[in-house]
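Appendix B.2, paired examples.
Example (i):
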Amino acid sequence: MQPYRSKTTILKDGTLTIKGLPFRPGEKVEVTVCARERQAEQDERYPLRGKTVRYDDPFGSVAEEDWGALK
């Protein structure tokens, strides 16, 4: 069974109406309702997403003084 997704908003009286479904009248369907993730929760989850990245010395050595073999 291929899922059909639709986004809508719950009305003030707590009802939900989905129009234009691609099913035949009388066809049995399974309905699952999930709350959408809030944008603020996504931003907290990935705080660096969309931020500018700057590399001061991308090809320089990292912790060169810590390598015993170089001494």
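Example (ii):
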Amino acid sequence: MKKMKSAIFRMICMAAAVWLLAGTSASGSERITINGSTTVLPITQKVAEAFMKEYPHINVSISGGGSGNGIKALVDGTTDIGQSSRWIKPEEVKLAVDNGHYPVPFAIALDAIIPVVHPSNPVDNLSMDQLKAIYEGKIRNWQEVGGEDRSIVIISRDSSSGTFGVWSDVALQGGRPSPRAQLLPSNGAITQAVSSNPNAIGYIGIGYLNDSLKAISLAGIEPSYENAASGKFPVARTLWIFTDNWPKGNTLLFINFALHPEKGQKYVKESGYVPLY
């Protein structure tokens, strides 16, 4: 049922994208504000840079802070676009509607949430049960999963993060990280923490992978671009942008650009994520 709902959501958003791509012209405010997920942030930054070159009279202002904060800003009416690495929660929809706002979703990219360790760590594969046990604090030493005799340092995102929500639902099967886990506010913070600690394990969006980290396979499935695109990797997801009601004016122009196969979507791939087309 969960997969069916995800497929329906994607079809709705793709259909909306086709409708939007019919075209529009710039009008209204000369400023667009975007707030939310640090996972989606590299995509919107690259798209916005290209967009402002094509439409130099429109300024796009982007801030991170997590999916929850992006959706909250949309609910509060303080942003034009909320970016999220998870689906909007029913209680958030209710709160938005109660406040006179109606969130409309658009899929912008596909992603995988990848467990990462320090490059010196010999562990390169974990089962889903092992991963869950590590994050719940039941496995505390790397030696228990084929590594060296070292205590495991658990690093996780905080609860405002969409990545945290998807990770808890899928990787932890609805469980919660151990109280020993260090909670950090962004993909960038996790990248820095894991790359500087040989005992650490964290998780990031595929677009944040770099040579300072070692990606861990799950159940023998490599966290590759191809496996993220096909949905084969166990922790795969859709990335979203939300608007308040059907977008118009400059906001519509930006979304048209972001979803265009030959414009914004090529910057999705440049950001390390999987484009929709």
